[in-house]
Amino acid sequence: MSHLKFLFRADETNVGDWWSPPFRYFPFKEALIGDIIDVNFNLADTDILIIGGGGVGTEYFRPHLNRIDNAQIERTVLWGGGVDTVVDQTKKLLPADYNLYGNFYDFIDVIGIRVFSDPQKFRYIPCASCMSDLFTKYRDVKPTKDIGYYNHKRVPLINGEHQELNDIENNNGNDLEEKLKFLSKYRYIITNSYHGIYWATLLGRKVIAVPFKSGLLSFKYKPVYSWDGVITDDLLHSAKAYDNILEESRSLNLDFYYELKNSMAIV
Questions:
Q1: Same domain, 170 and 217
Q2: N or C: which end of the chain has fewer CB within 10 A?
Q3: How far apart are CA 137 and CA 132, in angstroms?
Q4: Do 143 and 94 belong to one domain?
Q5: Are 184 and 239 in a shared domain?
Q6: Whole-angstrom Cα distance, residue 252 to residue 128?
Q7: Shared domain check, 234 and 165
Q8: pLDDT 10s digit of each residue in the chain, 267 long?
């Protein structure tokens, strides 16, 4: 039995969570893979545990992180994990100086976090989903429409009778290509989803974010923010596309992989 194990939020109804773990993109030795919320996943006899990606740094996941902390694992690694210290699904987040890190991951031995700030608390490693070959394919697609809406499935930006008036997708399901195909069609993406922001930025699209949780404020290459959910011409004009983000994100993940490979038995 392998003593390398992976934990992530194994949710096939959340495309970002489903495609975030590094074992989908890098060669590892035989390993056991579990859902971080599965209390029956055996953490005993674990030499190396790799956690993430996904936004597992929240109060909801704290009991599961505590379980990992108490398991006396030899080496724990966080790969591209995110943090939401504040989540408010009932109203839009207000501009403020939010704590982007909390203390969710302080017990982990090697921390690669998707949170970016100045100053930086832990090593910045963006979500490993950037390693998918689909980004190369859809980055080269020329947009044919102006504005697309990409909803978080539990916090829709547009609902009811107005949905039919707009081009709308959400993060439900596990079909990454379906989501990237949608995002690639538009010059502007309006979204309140972490991976909606991240993937649209990797594809070179201009992004306007409507934040309802603090993790949406933790990007290195920031979208333009609409704090009240109103999309104005000024916001659209101030949004920008970034160059070489895909290459940088992949390089950071590759470097992290090879450093782990050279320092512990993951292959």
A1: yes
A2: N
A3: 10
A4: no
A5: yes
A6: 9
A7: yes
A8: 569 999 999 999 999 999 999 999 999 999 999 999 999 999 999 999 999 999 999 999 999 999 999 999 999 999 999 999 999 987 779 999 999 999 999 999 999 999 999 999 999 999 999 999 999 999 999 999 999 999 999 998 875 445 555 699 999 999 999 999 999 999 999 999 999 999 999 999 999 999 999 999 999 999 999 999 999 999 999 999 999 999 999 999 999 999 999 999 999
